[in-house]
Amino acid sequence: MYCETDDELLELVERARKYTEKGKVASYIPALERANQNDLSIALYYDDGRCVRAGDVEKKFTLQSVSKVLTLALAIMDRGEEEVFSRVGMEPTGDPFNSIAKLETQIPAKPLNPMINAGALVVTNMIAGDSVHQKLGRLLSLIHDMTNNTDIDIEHEVAQSEYDTANLNRSLCFFMKQHGIIQGDVEELIDLYTKQCAIQVTCYDLARIGVVLANKGLDPQSNRRILPERIATIVKTFMVTCGMYNASGEFAIQVGVPSKSGVSGAILALVPPSIGVGVYGPALNEKGNSIGGVKLLEMLSQRYDLSIF
Ligand code: DON
After folding, report:
1. Which of 176, 228, 273, 302 has the fewest other C-beta atoms within 10 Å?
2. CA 287 to ligand 1: nearest atom
3. Is 19 annotated as a binding residue?
4. Which residues make up the binding site for substrate (predicted)?
5. CATH number assigned to the domain comprising residue 180
């Protein structure tokens, strides 16, 4: 795909890169620790097919929590809005992404929203299919459609590394299984969840996913419908209210566009109705969001007046 280097964008990347020194690469999943602290890159994809880039955009990284947006879209397509939101809520939380605290404060232990781990595990539990392989295949196929890139696959070392250490996520699952919120085998669910987190992409892929969401679920080039408009609206709204974890409120003020982050340093963002944005910067701030990536999006939003509010 042709994507032009943009000098103004490059200047913003170099300014934001200074902040990467102050962040920390995630180490709780051993395979993520090898990322380069100072990496920072961005791609923007427009609905007319244009693409601009800055930084090392060929670099691959894993989706991590960005996958929560895509599994939510798939689960709603599979089960319908009513069933999905009978098992997971729609409200933001001020807690860290992997917190177990709120689950015990209401019985049944329905997680507050699909962007925190507890909620995302419930959503993954609702993906249709007879096996982990089939469910994952359906998720990959949605991602292939949104990115127009059929090469996207799992990074098995990251998946295995997280599977071996995902004891907090196992605890969330066992707690929710006890209360009837999730069904079936917990190990299978953790297997699928850790694989969805380990799907490997580039900034271009994120930007292409973003432009499909910005364009209300339609592929901007072929005009083919990939997601129902209603589902695109739901996931974009969660990105605004819960996409940057317990920094979502500040991010909405400083940047003001639907965005979803992951511990790999990925940020999927979009500017309705016509721009998809993919950012990668593995050094994280204390809330678990890319420190350089958030700075870069703040600068970009201010310079081009991108806030939707
Ligand atoms: O559940 C986990 O621990 C990760 N695989 C995904 C979490 C994540 O990306 C949180 N992001 N800020």
Report:
1. 273
2. 12
3. no
4. 65, 117, 162, 169, 193, 245, 263
5. 1.10.1500.10
